[in-house]
């Protein structure tokens, strides 16, 4: 008998992991009927031919987003006190005092944070969020859909979307088991666990430990260590194009070796364009010494700024722009969707670059999977001034403490180091790949090619015990 499994996309971030990989195919091979519960604008039926049920009602309770912010602040305050560590305060965004309405709401938020900054307070606020979302039209709408579909399980593809709360509550109230996937390597310490489900899939033993540390109401038997499908395409050799084909398609110079510059979002690295400029200057210096180098610039998929344009225009002779193959359905970051074609593109950018450079990105793991080194920029730009965030703050975050050693990545701590570091990498004298693989294993688990299979193992186990 086919078991109906409802794969829930509250937003587009899970598409890459659960619509474009072998995830669906593997589930069907196990005798499951997979239906996508689609809260996004991405047309799964039309684009991929997948069976989908669209969620047309998207309205949250007017207070939900405020209470979610309150919850985040309280969880970070509790972690600060519990672990005697002020790093958790750096995960907060500043309060808004612009205008009377924003000021009054900020005062309300700060009052509730002050009254509830404890483990019991977290539970009170979470209960309040659930109460608000149960009162919405969306909750009833989703409940009606679930009553018609009658799935064996709802699998939520990310734990951090407010749009998922009412839908998952509806499933739980109907007695349908719920499972969610923790989306990103840094999400647990950052207090980005918005949903409460019956079970959770986590990337690694490290993430399992974190979940138990930060969320005492979650028990070990609710956690499945599965890895993440995020890196599976790097092991799919069918995606690899020959160097000649890839270079011809993107108008690259076959006589050059390329360094990938992986762009960051504006919040993480507000002066990112100047690191690209530094790389361009380093490449010019190396080319004057006889090297034949170019740069592949791959922007952050959700970056819509024009801040790189001046640098790109001034260095057209050495920088090739290869944009991620993502599609925008709106102006917000969560309305920009990946495509299946981008998995192939990223695979080939990694395969045909000598190394990657960036500010603290998880692309270190994409490139390590291809045995390619990574340089992290870790020095201030002269353009840094009050009101602009220093990128050095990023490396103090909890998820960077998972590095087995400082050699897990190559840190460039001064602009004048860059030429020598790149040259040493090209000569085979400098690499982080060996230690980087150890870090990759700590973060993503020991079996990066089997994540989809392990998630299906978890689903099967939950359904069988139902």
From TrEMBL:
Gene3D superfamilies: 3.40.50.12580. Pfam families: Glyphos_transf. It comes from the Bacteria. This is CDP-glycerol glycerophosphotransferase family protein.
